[in-house]
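Reposting from the mailing list since nobody answered there.

I have sequence plus structure tokens for a pair of proteins and want to know whether others read the tokens the same way I do. The first protein:
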Amino acid sequence: MFAQKNKSSHCIFMALICLLALYVGQVNAVWYEAKGQAIIMKGDKHSARKAATEEALKQALLFAGASINSVQQLTNGLLESEDITISSTGEVNQVELVDEVWHSDYVTVTIRADIFPKEQICKASEYTKHVASSYFSVANREHLLDGQIADFPAAFTRHLATLMDTHGTYAKLSYIAPYTTYWSPSTLPANVRELAKVADAQFVLVGEITDLSVTREPPSRLAFWADEDATRYFAFDVAVYDGLNGGKLFQRTYQTQDTWPFDRFAELDEYSQSFWSTAYGKAIDKQVAKFIVDLEETTSCQPLTGRVLQANNTNVTVSLGRDNGVMPNDELYIYQTRQFTDGRGETYLQYNIYPGVFIVESAYSNSAQVRHKDANVIINIQENDFVIKK
């Protein structure tokens, strides 16, 4: 039985995965059993069942190391079948419904999947990558007036970090600069590199909340005493950058909408659990879940990279440690970078690799001491050089 993630009866992220049998009937195939839960929104059991099934299958796939472009595509085909069983020539050979249990406001679905893991799972996925960000900006601050949620950008960024820490596998939002950055295209690569350096992070998130608008439908004249129906929208645009060279890895937009249960003059606490446990908060959480999957698919196989913190004639201290999964006797490589400009004015990044392999002698929570595998004397290595674990 594998360790279970933090459990909540109202959490769509929960999944319990059990290894049932190894190499049964097919070479290299493994059966996984997983449970997923989803809240029943507005009595829509079909959507809840679909969401719970999607979450269970996604967790089984990620745990097994399978790689698919879209779990959504697979589960849409899955749910077309009455007994929730599919066959495929891809990484998922078969998925079966084991059980579904309906509660008053949520459903639990158990599936069993026959999964072919990747032929070669990258070694880099064993290590935790640290991510940095500043508070997300907001495109239209007037959207913050309804509910008096002026601190929503900061609250959302912190909530994102919590969800990444709780439900992520490979990437953790370990540093949030306590301010909002308005990124200028001309200075963005340099600012990304600087934030990554300050935070000892490998990747940087640049995010903007593009929609927080509310639409309200007044009650009919025949039911003038009823409350108006309100819907709130949510959309955020996020780009992920390599903190070493400032290059963009991907950029996507996530959007949703749901019932907004609050009066326009209400003063809400956007940091509170009562806010995030609303239907609107849960709708945002589902978009964040999609982002976490996209982020980890993008970064999991990127080599683990850190910086040299201190160097002397015999030992080097680096910014990678046990928090990243680095342990004594691991092998690391150290290199320098420099920018140069060619005759046409084009700027390039040059990598100068220090010869040989470095061995981790002592690993601490966020640092490690390393020594050269063959040489007794270390020369030319400087603070802020880079270290990589392949």
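The second protein, same order (residues first, tokens after):
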Amino acid sequence: MKEKDFLLAILITFIWGVNFSVIKLGLTSLDPFILSGMRFLLCSLPLIFFIKKPNVSMKYIITYGLLFGVGLWGIVSLGIYFGVSAGMASLILQFSAFFTVILAGLFLKEEIDILKKFAFAIAILGLTLIISVTDGSVTFIGLVLILVAALSLSFTNIIVKKAGTKNLFSFMVWASIFSPLPLFVLAFFTQGEIVFTSFFEHLDNTAIFSILFQVYPTTLFGYWVWNNLLHKYPVSSVAPISLLVPIFGLMGSYFIFHEQIGLIKILASFLIVSALVVNSFGEKIYLKLYGEK
């Protein structure tokens, strides 16, 4: 990979990691569902009027929009709102990689080999350590919500594979139009009409920054660059860099919110990142060392 592209990939993982803290900043002013709804409204408008619809079935576009906007980021925002720190949310969300393996086995009939099972076991140890954290950065309901979001992210991975689209930027823009309405409906049912009548009253500079950061650097720019890199280089060259996301997530939470990073969190991070490495590259490493599986 060229040095310029490598640095660009690092920048994207940094943006994605820090984004969890930016979400938390937005939650100081706005309801989590309103915050997420505004993100995806601006991801789609006005771009949808200028970008051609991807050549895939609408059922994939709609389902992706609901799962990615509501099931993933709406629930992540809710999980952070209910007490999971930004850093821990970025780490827990990595469980989507293991859920994706399970879903691929169920829906795509892909084999779940012994190395992937081993990786999942390591990740469970990491999750056990996260549950034992007592510094207030993890709550039970928040943890459950982030795991639900991770499961939603796994389903979006399956949808992308089933849809077979290569133009993921167009796919993202068109899918995003189906996220805001259900998010706004959830905001109404959970908080009432006050979240709408007082919206501009709470829309301070911090909330505006949070929304714009999530829309442009994180979603539109981030996914556009990342998908271009995936087309330009082998997946094996690009994918490992994404392992930096939870590291930047924890660092962002430390510097912005002064989250404590103790031994337990370091061990949990090490276990989960190690599990991701085994899950993604264990077979290649094994074959290189032993020549056969």
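Reply #1 (J.P.):
I read it the same way you do. The mean pLDDT is 88.
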